[in-house]
# Entry
Amino acid sequence: MSISGERLEVALSAKFATVGDISRVLSSFRAVRKGNTLLVNAGRPNEQRADSYLKGLKAMPFYEGALRDRVHPWAAGLEAHWADVREELEAALEGDQVEWAAACREEATSYGPQWSTLVLQDRIWHAGNVARFPKTVALLTGCVDGVPPVPTVEVFFARQEPDSGIATHTDGCNFILTSHLALMAEPDKAYIDVGGERRYWEEGKVMVFDTSYVHSTMNTSKHSRYVLLLRIWHPGVTEVERKALSWIFAVLEDPGLIDSVLGPEAPLSEVGELGKERLSRAERRRQERERRKSEGRRGGGSSFGGTRG
# Structure
């Protein structure tokens, strides 16, 4: 089912009208629909590029030292309990209990077949895998004393096979950061470059970095490198903005959520001649694509994961 970008924006505004300020989210959504891109330092090693972005967010390749511990207070807790995470991963590997999946998203084409994942969370927690890693999930969700919950959007184990790497790319989003807890990595043999800065993985250590900068990886060792990879909200994104952005992505998976806010949309055949004239140009295109799709013909292209116009 295609989604009208205009209708989604109206529903978004209505749903959060009394909740808080989502002006940056609305601005971001409009920018995506127009095809605008955040581009800083184009062509340089520290290039930052994002198709989905919020204005005004502070950007840096890595969060380190006192800044990391202040802005991401959960990071030290993960380091303190990292052995529990590694122990669960080792048990799963030894028992051959899990299946690793290759990168399949469009933005992950540069990852190559030597990079694979074991997903615990992709906006929602995956019950089967979560059951295999109870200590890891408890650590991430604030169930371990002294460790704040991690504001995750995605959680998965990532494996990089020996003598392989990920080509230079950007994840195309500045309001989601990435964190790695290194679980198995040969010293000084596996590294990541972010925005022209290189860091080597150290077992038991947490990295936090911004993958809207161009970045790449390399594992020069003879052993696979394993990390617990977290996609987390940028600390500059407010709680209401997080909820609004999450709702957009939920709508992309379940367009019926729009109807729960605005009510059902009348089919084009029931609108009437005057109503048809009042429909926006974008809305008419969307409904026409829906009609073609129902007749078994291809519709038009898409943007923002399925919105139209």
